[in-house]
Amino acid sequence: MQEIRVALLRHKVIFFHGQDHLDEEGQVAFARLLGEPTTAHPTVPSLDGNAHILDLDYRGGHKVDRWHTDVTFVDRPPLASVLRAVEVPPVGGDTLWANTVAAYRHLPAELRDLADRLRAVHTNEYDYVRVTTSDDPERTRRYAEVFSSTVFETEHPVVRVHPETGERAILLGDFAKRLVGLSGHTSTAIIKLLQEQVTQVENTVRWRWSPGDVAIWDNRATQHRVVHDFGERPRRLHRVTVAGDVPVGVDGRGSRVIRGDATGYTTSAA
């Protein structure tokens, strides 16, 4: 397991083909080798019979196709995620990951200096413009009601110091809504600029799923998104997240809860 952890810290995301022997219990047991699993999600119900597994079933489900780091709207985002392919389409449905350490390292020095001093508010409060413009507004509305049934807001540093490697990583993604102390227009422009740096193709890897594949990523140093090019074909994956710690910025300041109590999700990390 030490070799896997070293590889994860170095590469940020690692893949295992053909792990067909794994079931739900085996997946959770494997995740425990990295740390204590969280509950499946702060608001979305878990898979029946297993409180640690989030069932990502896209058959008639919600389209999640924006870059994000998992669960950054709470004060202790997961350390890592373990994702197992249960059923995948014959074509399409790949997942992309972006290395946020590499993205930070490739920023111009002046932009790194700015990012080091910024803090962003992350929330799961749903943008209902996305509901009205979605392919299926009613389905998306139902999902949004569950996803934001309890609203969380957390202020994070835009650049966090990785607690194991000491590397600096950009902490943004789709849950980051505004920058502290800046106007909405300026916040949007700077977040867009930094996000474009994160998702440059040189910082990314793309995985073509087969049933039984497992991906593990360092949630402290990556963003990811699905390529939603598989239409209505079945795509189902199971995710387990490993409890993390409070992000700390370059100035030594940790993240700060604004709204919502996530201890029920991350009690094991406290």
CATH homologous group name: Clavaminate synthase-like
**Rg value:** 18 Å
Numbering strands along the chain, what is their spatial order in the largest sheet? Answer: 1-11-3-13-2
**CATH topology value:** Double-stranded beta-helix
Structural notes for this entry:
Helices cover 25% and strands 24% of the residues. It is an alpha+beta fold. It has a single domain, classed as 4-Layer Sandwich (Double-stranded beta-helix), CATH 3.60.130.10. The strands form four sheets. A five-stranded antiparallel beta sheet has the order 1-11-3-13-2, with helices on one face. A four-stranded antiparallel beta sheet has the order 9-5-6-14. A three-stranded antiparallel beta sheet has the order 10-4-12. It is globular and about 50 Å long. The mean pLDDT is 92.
What tags apply to this protein structure?
8 helices; alpha+beta; five-stranded antiparallel beta sheet; Double-stranded beta-helix; 270 residues; four-stranded antiparallel beta sheet
Describe the secondary-structure layout.
Elements: H1 2-11, E1 13-16, H2 24-32, E2 54-57, E3 80-87, E4 95-99, H3 100-105, H4 109-116, E5 119-123, H5 128-132, H6 137-147, E6 153-157, E7 159-161, E8 168-170, E9 176-179, H7 184-198, E10 204-207, E11 214-218, E12 222-226, E13 236-242, E14 256-259, H8 263-266
Antiparallel strand pairs: 1-11, 2-13, 3-11, 3-13, 4-10, 4-12, 5-6, 5-9, 6-14, 7-8
Describe this structure in a few short sentences.
The chain has 270 residues and is of the alpha+beta class. Helix content is 25%, strand content 24%.
